[in-house]
Amino acid sequence: MRYVLLEIRAPRVIMAILVGGGLGLSGSAMQALFRNPLADPGLLGISSSAAFGAAAMIVLGSLFLPHPVVFGYLPVAAFACAFAASLLMYSFAASSGRLAIPLLLLAGIAVNALAIGGIGLLIYVSNGEQLRTLTFWNLGSVAGANWTIIAAVAPIIALGGGLLLGHRRALNALQLGETEAQHLGVPVLRVKRVVLFGVALCVGTLVACTGVIGFVGLVAPHCMRLLGGPDQRFVMPAAALFGAILMLLADLGARTLHAPAEIPLGILTALFGAPFFLALLLKKKAVWGM
Predict the structure, then answer these.
(1) Is the Cβ–Cβ distance between 230 and 175 less than 8 Å?
(2) 51-100 pLDDT, tens per residue?
(3) Which residues cross the membrane (predicted)?
(4) Disulfide-capable partner of 170 in 99, 191, 275, 284 (CB 3.0 to 4.6 Å)?
(5) Which homologous superfamily does the CATH classification assign to the domain defined by 2-287?
């Protein structure tokens, strides 16, 4: 029992907290940066790029490396692709000392479509065993968490989260518009760079270790804004806390609803998040008088 608690349950709980907190924090930062409540960590294609890296390693890795999944090359490939996608999008959107958010968004949509197409192609050419691994990984799970992974992931999430939290006031100023923020003394370009780097660091690392888990980064900031208003000094840490709670509840459901089998986390978060998001839209529709 002690072994199960310390070596299986505890790492899983901590990983769920890291995933939920990182996605909630990244989602609130993205929504503030884009001034769009529909933005989430997957908007720029970072999540799908990480998923493509992992899929490529699952299907093609054995051509170059012995047992790539067993020896832990999967997170490395996923993070490398996520980081490369971030650099590619930044190079498209940055020009003459400025970072154009609309161009960044369009580049993200293109990268997202390209990554999804690549994943589809890899699924098409995969064999039965690879297809099962791909399917389970793409739906997300914290079942593979252990102390070694947590020791590698936690400092990166702490760095990325610290960068995002350190720019809460600047993101508040950006809600007024870039020109107004500059008049208030906010270094707009530097803030954009740091926030994008922090989001890429958090999301790329988490997706690399747990697979794609959707809706947490979208729902958690929404709930906290409804609860305490749009001030990022409240929304960002509160979204991280609420995201962690959501992930703990989702992981509990994943382990118990169909025991002894396990339901992938991505299924549960989508089943919960999609109706919740529709309810939010209906509420907004009523507020707008439509």
Answers:
(1) yes
(2) 898 888 888 877 777 765 545 677 778 888 888 888 888 888 877 667 77
(3) 12-30, 42-64, 70-91, 103-125, 145-165, 194-222, 234-253, 265-282
(4) 191
(5) ABC transporter involved in vitamin B12 uptake, BtuC (1.10.3470.10)
